Amino acid sequence: LKVMYNYSLEFDSDELDLLELDFDDIERVRTAGEQRVLVETGRRETEVITGRLTLSDERVQLIRGGETNDFKRYQIVSIAGGSKRERDNWSGGFSFGGALRGGNTKTLDITTMANLRRRTALSRLNMDYFSNYSAAREVETANNHRVNGSFDWFLTGRFYWKMLEAEYYRDPFANIKDQYSMSSGVGYDIARNSKTEWTLNTGVGYQETKFDSVVPPDPESSQSPFGTIGTRLDHEVNGNIDFLYDYSARFLNETSGSYTHHMVTTLSVELIADLDLDVSLVWDRIENPQPTDDGAGGTTSPKQDDYQLIVGVGYDF
Question: How far is CA 316 from CA 51, 200, 217, in A?
């Protein structure tokens, strides 16, 4: 037994490989080794209990030495192995899409998305990477990269402290040479079951942006504190189709854009084994983009919105 998180239990063996089972569908569990189980002991209280796990219908027991702890199935928030290898805490996936055209029109489009997660009974670490590169007749038309990481610590079964979230972003075509940000906040899981995970979060942070081009006397960089809100919905439509919606917004000073958001929606259809067909829509917006020098004594203002429709092949591990 690797982990139970968001009401999905992962079981790995040489005979069956990796299985992901809805926790609600499991009638019995009996482990030989110890497990670390996060249990909701009260409305706002949780406790990590370690022991050999036995589950039968709605009754759960954790046995360690001569001590036995009894509780109900619905009280379990998550399960992590008590003596397993560190690499068993990790999972992730990536998606790749691309197009190459020749002849009268020579274009190249490459999009990459990747996610890496570490999950334990009390915490979760999430890291995301997104990049998009396009060229027409060897002239770049897009080249952006976004790296994001966050660490959450659960205070109760659903309420968590987003201790740290950090991000790096660059998009020269939006006049962003380099952008760094850090934030902290809180979140709450509105829904978490075998089919649906829906969480909301909010916080405050600090952002620094270096512009690719400016018109004097405008500054070459900007700094701003910001407030942020976000939501993430991960829903299993059926056994072969998953839907993901991820949205985050920031409220900053005018020089830094006033308001920005990053939104990703993905429909993932299982093809074979761990391979999926991913269709994603990405929408980035900057309310007040920084004008650039057009090289002829004038200015050019980047568009507020960038849209991308991406079709790619994904792999989960």
Answer: 30, 25, 49
Tell whether the model's pLDDT for residue 11 goes beyond 60.
yes
The number of C-alpha atoms within 13 Å of 26 and in the hemisphere containing its C-beta is 23
The encoded tokens of residue 262 equal: 């990053």
Tokens of 84: 């397993």
Give the count of beta carbons closer than 10 Å to the beta carbon of residue 47: 15
CA distance 51 to 246: 36
Are the CB atoms for 199 and 232 separated by under 8 Å?
A: yes
What is the arithmetic mean of pLDDT over 80-91? 66
Q: In Å, how far from its chain's centre is CA 77?
A: 20
Of 224, 213, 226, 232, the residue nearest 296 (C-alpha): 213
Q: What is the pLDDT of residues 287-314, one digit of tens each?
A: 999 888 766 666 788 899 998 888 889 8
Whether this prediction's pTM lies above 0.85 is answered by no
CA 307/CA 285 separation, integer angstroms: 9
**Torsion from C-alpha of 59, 60, 65, 67, nearest 10 degrees:** -60
209, amino acid identity? T
CA angle 49, 51, 53 (to 5 degrees): 105
* Residues facing residue 160 across a β-bridge: 154, 187
Q: How far apart are CA 226 and CA 224, in angstroms?
A: 6
Give the Cα separation of 262 and 4 in Å (integer): 30
- Measured on CA atoms in the order 267, 277, 229, 174, is the torsion positive or negative? negative
Which pLDDT does position 83 carry in this prediction?
46
Q: Confidence band (pLDDT; 50, 70, 90) for 2?
A: confident
Q: Are 316 and 274 in contact (CB under 8 A)?
A: yes
Which one-letter amino acid corresponds to residue 39?
A: V
